[in-house]
Specification:
Shape: globular
Structural class: mainly beta
Number of strands: 42
Pfam families: GH43_C2 (PF17851), Glyco_hydro_43 (PF04616)
Family: Belongs to the glycosyl hydrolase 43 family.
InterPro entries: ConA-like_dom_sf, GH43_C2, Glyco_hydro_43, Glyco_hydro_beta-prop_sf, Glycosyl_Hydrlase_43
Radius of gyration: 24 Å
Keywords: Glycosidase, Hydrolase
Number of helices: 2
Distance between the termini: 32 Å
Helix content: under 10%
Protein name: Glycoside hydrolase family 43 protein
């Protein structure tokens, strides 16, 4: 390709949203040299804080997660949609700084958040032991000022009945050398009448301090608010023209829930905003894919306010004037040939340690030692990957020899402890090995006894879960080819909207994650059973 042709190709490229499909919320974007990094929330899933890498803002690859062991965070007992909220990634004085919140509850006006900071000389680590910061609120973020000082921001939670639980944006100095907070905290910004002010990010540009916050809550009323001040501690003036970005009042838009943004500047001075979105299956309907990450171009004239064209999330935006940099495509099939789980996989509430995730004992197989029941929050045995498209499937081959009904191994379409569909091998009372199907809708379990399949004498069983828009279907192969179970299951129960539960005005449950496809082994009797998975093939249709 000639230089002229290459330049034209670069200029014509577009960012197609979402850039991170499936459960990738609360993006914090950062540029270091020619590399762009995105950190996203993971809640009850390991590895915590997924990191994504790009050189052109168009093509992204997943580097895996930073919180890979309990030294950095212990998620045993973590509730649904608790855990790792809204990470913040910055770079200063040759070190990456990652701040993350561990939120333990959200009932009766309490959150019980705890914020931590880890640092590393390289995005791949090694990461330091965590510094315990304050627990006064969540969505904590670091700001490194031009004078060399660093400051921690967060929302300020107020538990008192009758008060605004979102009490404003708080700031406190962080001493990097001493690795602790110093001085007194103060409220920097109390938000706009939209309320639910959270997700702060602070920037220094054009002689101003620019405060970016999320408001309206992380659903249909979400927005990105901009305020500025000449002084660090304010007062902060809100953009008189309204939010930088929102999809409120525009149910016709493909990308909804636009909010929780962070800014990045390219090497050539172009500005972009990374933010979360949702793609409902119907207008203001279920977002089975969860909250995803999109990127918008920002026009920022000297002396003026930043502007996203139209103020709404676009499906496609002009890419920066940077050389194109694609990454190798992820293999469709994971043959489990490596000694570690691939970056596409996550594990529920416990890291993928060798005591239950074994890729070495039997080469080219994933051996999963059974864990707790679907409601167990200490040691479940679920290895899963995000659903990234409305039409997709996960296919596997499993070897499993159950001895009773307390031993189950199979494939699942999963959202949380209360909402899932599971096709599994187990042992019937008459001694046969059988395939059974079980669904849970907000904890109400539905068996399908008429669909039970006799799998006696079959060593290797093929299992497949298929997302077909609002429907989940299951297939099996006992050696004579694929057969479909004759039931269409509701995929929309695997959504944020379905999982959320408000009782007497108080949140009894939230839904902040997204649908997963996974390999699930349960050992309800604690007998030490395991299942071997020969491969896993994920396709988007």
């Amino acid at each position: 390709m000639s230089t002229d042709t290459a330049d034209v190709a670069t200029a014509a490229r577009s960012i197609r949203n979402p850039v991170l499909a499936g459960f990738h919320p609360d993006p914090s974007i950062l540029r270091v040299g020619d590399d762009f990094y995105l950190a996203t929330s993971t809640f009850e899933w390991y590895p915590g804080v997924r990191i994504h890498h790009s050189r052109d803002l168009v093509n992204w690859r997943t580097l895996g997660g930073i919180i890979t062991d309990r030294r950095l965070l212990d998620l045993r007992g973590c509730g649904d949609s608790n855990g790792v909220w809204a990470p913040d990634l910055t770079y200063h004085d040759g070190e990456f700084h990652l701040v993350y919140s561990d939120v333990a509850s959200f009932a009766s006006g309490y959150w019980d958040p705890q914020n931590f900071l880890v640092t590393a000389p390289d995005i791949a680590g090694p990461w330091s032991d965590p510094v315990k910061l304050h627990g006064r609120g969540f969505d904590a973020a670091l700001f490194h000022d031009d004078d060399g000082t660093s400051w921690l921001l967060s929302m300020s939670a107020d538990w008192r009945p009758g008060r605004d639980r979102f009490g404003g944006i708080e700031i406190q100095q962080y001493d990097r050398a001493a690795r602790r907070l110093v001085g007194r905290p103060r409220i920097l910004f109390t938000g706009t009448p939209v309320g639910v002010t959270e997700g702060p990010h602070l920037y220094r540009h054009d002689g101003w301090y620019w405060l970016i916050t999320a408001e309206g809550g992380t659903s249909w009323e979400h927005q990105v608010t901009v305020a500025r001040s000449r002084e660090l501690f304010g007062p902060y003036e809100v953009d008189p023209d309204g939010p930088l970005l929102t999809s409120v009042g525009r149910p016709d838009l493909r990308l909804q829930k636009a909010g929780h943004g962070s800014l990045v500047r390219t090497q050539d001075g172009e500005w972009y905003l990374a933010h979360l979105v949702g793609r409902p299956y119907s207008p203001l309907g279920s977002c089975v894919l969860g909250r995803e990450t999109a990127i918008q171009r920002v026009d920022w004239p000297s002396g003026g306010w930043p502007r996203v064209p139209g103020g709404v999330p676009a499906d496609e935006v002009a890419a920066p004037d940077l050389p194109t940099h694609p990454w190798p495509a992820e293999p469709v099939t994971d043959h489990f040939d490596d000694a570690e789980l691939g970056h596409c996989w996550s594990t529920l509430r416990r890291p993928a340690t060798t005591d239950w995730v074994d890729l070495r004992t039997r080469p080219s197989h994933l051996r999963i030692h059974g864990g707790q029941s679907p409601v167990g929050r200490q040691a479940p045995s679920l290895v899963a990957r995000r659903v990234g498209a409305t039409h997709c499937s996960l296919e596997t081959v499993v070897e499993f020899d159950p001895v009773d009904h307390r031993q189950l191994a199979g494939i699942t379409a999963y959202y949380n402890t209360l909402n899932w569909h599971h096709l599994y091998l187990t042992r019937a009372d008459d001694g046969r090995t059988v395939l059974e199907l079980l669904s849970s809708d907000n904890g109400r379990r539905t068996p399908y006894p008429d669909l039970t399949v006799d799998a006696s004498g079959v060593t290797r069983v093929g299992l497949r879960a298929v997302f077909d828009g609002p429907v989940v279907r299951f297939d099996y192969d006992l050696g004579a080819g694929w057969q479909r179970l004759s039931v269409d299951l509701d995929a929309t129960i695997l959504s944020d909207e379905h999982a959320a539960l408000i009782i007497d005005g108080e949140p009894a449950a939230w839904g902040f994650t997204g649908a997963f496809l996974g390999l699930w082994v349960q050992d309800l009797g604690g007998d030490g059973v395991h299942a071997d998975f020969d491969l896993a093939t994920y396709r988007e249709h």
